[in-house]
Structure formats: C-alpha cells, structure tokens
C-alpha cells in the first residue's frame, strides 16, 4: 500500500514536471498566449515515448482520396520544415495515440492505476480502417484545424437509397437488390469526430478543457467508407470559454454534410 502511494506520488511529480503542465494561463484566462501555444505544439512529439504508435500516419486501409489529401497537407508541413527556421510552419500534423497516459512521459504510474485496458475512444479498434481513420492538421496561426476522415464499416448508421425520387418506380421494382441500398455513417460517430477535431483545435489554444456544449446540424448523410473533410475555425474566446465552429464537407468542398458549434470551458484550475 505504502509502495503504491509512493509510486502515485512520484508519478504525479513527474507528470507535473512536463512542459505541458508548466504552462499557466493568466488567471482570467481571457488572453490566449499564442507564442506559448506554438512552442507547446512544436514540442508535442517529444512528450511521448518513441515506442508509441502514431495512428495518424498512412496505412493500407487508406483510400486514394485520403492519401491524396494527406499528401497535400503533409507536403505543406514538410515544406516549412525544410528551412532553417523550423517554427515557420504553415500546417502541422497532430500525432495521434491510443493510450495517451501510457505514452506520455511520466504518465506510467497513472496508467498503472487504471491498468490500462483504457484506450482512446477513436483509436480503440485494432483493424486499420475499420472505424475512425483520420489525420488532423493544425494551421500556423492556430485559427484553423482540418481533419481528413475516412469512415470505416464499424461506424454504420442508417441505410438509404441511391435511387433518386424520380426513379422511384424503378427503385420499388428492384428494391430487393442489395446494390440499391447504401449505408451511412452513424450520427454519433460524426459527433465523436466533430468533438475530437474541435477539442484538438481548442487544445492548441489552451490547456485542460472540457466540452460544455456541442450543437450539431446534420444536413446530408455521409456514405459509409467515404472520405470527408472536417474543418474547424475559432469563433471567439471569452474568459474561460472557447467557441469553435465546424463543418463536415465532401473532399472537394461541394457538399455540406454537417455543421456544428462547440463550446469548451477551461478548467477552473487554470482559469481561476
Ligand atoms: C499540436 C496539437 C496539440 C494539441 C494536442 C491535443 C490533443 C488533444 C487530443 C485529444 C484529447 C481529447 C480527448 C477527447 C475529449 C473529447 C472532449 C470530451 O468529450 S469532454 C467530455 C464531455 N464533457 C464533459 O463531461 C463536461 C461536463 N461538464 C463539466 O465538467 C462542467 O459543466 C464544465 C467544466 C463544462 C463547466 O463547469 P465550470 O463549473 O468549470 O464552469 P461554469 O461556471 O459552469 O461555466 C463557465 C462558463 O461556461 C458557460 N457554460 C457552461 N456550460 C455551458 C453550456 N452547456 N452551454 C452554454 N454555456 C455554458 C457558463 O454559463 C459560464 O459562462 P460565463 O462565464 O458565466 O459567461
């Protein structure tokens, strides 16, 4: 018992010594310190063990569209990193792990307590491409975040028909044929991705936040297996509140699938 408590204490000490934890907001938390945030983001990968698997890297399940978009944004990151001035990047890919606590330096003691069957919700399916396949990029000025999301078969929601209304007769004749049905992504899965993207965006701006409100309008269903873009933009910050809006569109931007606003509240620990 005493040894366990000692371990917990040491674990807390080492976690609190992370650069992340050293960052403090002004008590009012109304001013978001851009320079601090940029420095934090640039040092992000070093807080994690090199053994951790980064799930935001391409894998065999990625379709052509997903790869193409990844190359597009990733090349913008690389271009900026080629130069001597490493801080002058336009976009940065956000690494993604399935066990944040385990792989965060110093987090080992905490993860032992939870004996770590715990997995990050969007990264808890082993089979690549089966569920949430995504990669996030944040922009240099921290006002924008973009996510390329490929929705896997385990995210099945409602079913719909490929047949247009004016072809209804043909549709009813062939209603038995499976090929006339299409599966769409579950609304809860879409909400999860919106929460993930907007919370990541808000995390770039400040620390220790919670989603307080998520308001979603589903405009057009997302076909299962398809790739979409999730764009988030900062609306405003007000005291401890960070308001972000988000759109889910087709990859060419022509179809609006979902739009949302999210409110995050900074923890009282930081916000006073
Ligand atoms: C290179 C990149 C680097 C970044 C890398 C980062 C990676 C990150 C990636 C991955 C990690 C992400 C992990 C995923 C997590 C996903 C997010 C979630 O799922 S969070 C779980 C669901 N949310 C909850 O369980 C909250 C439960 N609610 C609460 O705990 C409290 O209600 C809380 C904290 C939200 C607020 O409580 P109070 O006591 O601190 O604050 P009060 O005084 O109530 O509110 C403060 C202000 O906010 C307004 N407010 C609060 N709730 C509101 C609401 N629902 N609607 C509108 N306004 C609200 C209030 O009216 C008040 O406004 P006035 O200051 O008076 O102007």
Automatic annotation (TrEMBL):
Q: What class of enzyme is it?
A: hydrolase
Membrane-topology annotation of the record: Peripheral membrane protein
Q: Name one GO molecular function term.
A: hydrolase activity
Q: Which reaction does it catalyse?
A: octanoyl-CoA + H2O = octanoate + CoA + H(+); dodecanoyl-CoA + H2O = dodecanoate + CoA + H(+); hexadecanoyl-CoA + H2O = hexadecanoate + CoA + H(+); (5Z,8Z,11Z,14Z)-eicosatetraenoyl-CoA + H2O = (5Z,8Z,11Z,14Z)-eicosatetraenoate + CoA + H(+)
Q: Identify the Pfam families for this entry.
A: 4HBT
Question: Which keywords fit this entry according to its UniProt record?
Answer: Apoptosis, Cell membrane, Cell projection, Cytoplasm, Fatty acid metabolism, Hydrolase, Lipid metabolism, Membrane, Mitochondrion, Mitochondrion inner membrane, Transit peptide
Q: Which InterPro entries match?
A: HotDog_dom_sf, THEM4/THEM5_acyl-CoA_thioest, Thioestr_dom
| Span of domain Thioesterase | 184-254
Q: Which residues form a coiled coil?
A: none
Q: Where in the cell is it found?
A: Cell projection, Ruffle membrane; Cytoplasm; Mitochondrion inner membrane; Mitochondrion intermembrane space
The keyword Lipid metabolism belongs to this UniProt entry's keyword annotation: yes
Per the record, the GO terms for biological process are: apoptotic process; fatty acid metabolic process
GO CC annotation terms, alphabetical: mitochondrial inner membrane; mitochondrial intermembrane space; ruffle membrane
EC number per UniProt: 3.1.2.2
- Similarity comment: Belongs to the THEM4/THEM5 thioesterase family.
Query: Mind telling me what this protein is named?
Result: Acyl-coenzyme A thioesterase THEM4
Originating gene = LOC114448008
């Amino acid at each position: 018992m005493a040894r366990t408590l000692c371990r917990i204490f040491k674990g807390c000490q080492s976690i609190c010594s992370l650069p992340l934890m050293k960052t403090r907001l002004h008590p009012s938390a109304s001013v978001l310190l851009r320079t601090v945030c940029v420095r934090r983001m640039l040092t992000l990968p070093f807080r994690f063990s090199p053994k951790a698997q980064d799930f935001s890297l391409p894998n065999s399940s990625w379709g052509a569209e997903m790869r193409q978009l990844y190359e597009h944004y990733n090349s913008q990151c690389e271009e900026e990193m080629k130069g001597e001035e490493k801080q002058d990047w336009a976009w940065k890919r956000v690494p993604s792990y399935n066990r944040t606590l385990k792989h965060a330096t110093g987090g080992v003691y905490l993860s032992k307590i939870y004996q770590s069957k715990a997995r990050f919700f969007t990264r808890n399916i082993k089979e690549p491409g089966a569920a949430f396949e995504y990669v996030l990029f944040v922009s240099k000025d921290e006002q924008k975040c973009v996510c390329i999301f490929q929705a896997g078969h385990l995210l099945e929601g409602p079913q719909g028909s490929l047949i247009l209304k004016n072809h209804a007769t043909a549709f009813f004749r062939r209603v038995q044929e499976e090929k006339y049905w299409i599966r769409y992504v579950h609304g809860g899965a879409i909400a999860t991705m919106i929460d993930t993207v907007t919370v990541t965006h808000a995390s770039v701006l400040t620390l220790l936040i919670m989603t307080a409100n998520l308001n979603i309008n589903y405009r057009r269903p997302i076909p299962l297996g398809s790739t979409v873009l999730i764009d988030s933009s900062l609306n405003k910050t007000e005291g401890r509140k960070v308001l972000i809006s988000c759109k889910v569109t087709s990859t060419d931007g022509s179809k609006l699938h979902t739009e949302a606003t999210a409110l995050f509240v900074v923890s009282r620990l930081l916000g006073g």
